[in-house]
Amino acid sequence: MHSTELSKQHWLLILTLTLLTFVLGTSEFVIVGILTDISSSFQITNAKAGTLVSAFAITFAIATPLVMSATSHFPKRNWMLFLIGTFIALNALCVISTSYIMFLTLRILTAIVTGVLISLAMIVASETMPIEKRGIAISFVFGGFTLANVVGVPLGIVIAERYGWNATFILTTLLGSLAFLASFSFLPNKLSQVRSSILDQFSLLANPRILMAFFIPALGFGATYTVFTYLVPILNGMGAPENSISLILFGYGFISIFSNILAGKIASHNAIGRLRFVFLVQAIVLTTLFWTTNHFILGLVNIGLMSLMAILLTTSTQLYLIDLAGIYQPKATGLAASLMPVASNVGIAFGSALGGIVYHQGNLMNVTWVGGVVAVCASLLTFLSYHFDQKQKKSA
């Protein structure tokens, strides 16, 4: 795999990793759509059922870098196959869960497996592709999550409505089995394997350049989720018919597919340089929602642009963190690969909380300009990182 073009073997691997992230994303996100069914089944409140979502996110954020550091020396192919097998088993057990505690435990374990598999998928995509094509490969792998939201989650919800929430996990178990077969067939044997101590791994997190790069996607996602978390009440305020909201949200997810494609284009050349201005455009798009939502059609167009801007940062920041680790701590690229997914979860939690604070202060639409301010902060941080990169190149 050393040519400058993507061969059939490259594409089979990319599609395998995309299928894997699609399965992982469906399993992670579908829980929101079936939460009330689960609460009824276990005879708990919706608020208590909501801890299934927060526990997953918290576990994902904390456990992923820890496990990636501890297992950096494991053979990647065998380790990934083992984790996919574990994912299948955990989802199968979810089908027969008889209590909230059992189900919560299974979801926490699934969060650990999910975080590590996502990180490993990003490393494999990065190191097996020609350098010029890494952006395209990573954008496809991230695209699995977009497809999970657009296709996997609605499918899982429909199945839950017809056959019960347990049936949704039969779906994720079967999809996991497909991902295992594809991975067994197409994951290469010769993947990097670095032996390093936990101290070597976590020394990466003490590097100010890595910390700066980590908060770029955290703020980028935070900007979007300050607004997106409250998109339904915004749509209600625009006068959107109740039966059209699910269709609008589907359209939002569909547009994000193109955002993912553009993310690969941005990452192909001078990614951080381009990203400086992407965040400024995002700030404008979010802020103008304050006015455009007074008109239904203009508001929908602006929401579409918000979706288009939402994940342009993913591919660039993922590769940037891996490349920075290659410069400052080559033995910790595995940990670096786990930081973007963690940063996205931090950003989602931060943005949702910030939006909630603003919302409860009075005017819902204030979340739009607050989201814009967060996007400007992401741009400033990117400008600073770019400045340090150029300064380092000149001194080299």
Automatic annotation (TrEMBL):
Cross-referenced PROSITE patterns: MFS
InterPro entries per UniProt: MFS, MFS_dom, MFS_Efflux_Transporters, MFS_trans_sf
Protein's membrane topology: Multi-pass membrane protein
Keywords assigned by UniProt, alphabetized: Cell membrane, Membrane, Transmembrane, Transmembrane helix, Transport
Record's subcellular location: Cell membrane
Name the UniProt record assigns to this protein: MFS transporter
Signal peptide positions on this chain: none
Gene3D superfamilies: MFS general substrate transporter like domains
Species for this entry: Solibacillus palustris
Chief localisation class: membrane
Top-level lineage group: Bacteria
TM spans (from-to): 12-35, 47-67, 79-102, 108-125, 137-159, 165-189, 210-232, 244-263, 275-291, 297-322, 334-357, 369-388
Residue span, Major facilitator superfamily (MFS) profile domain: 13-390
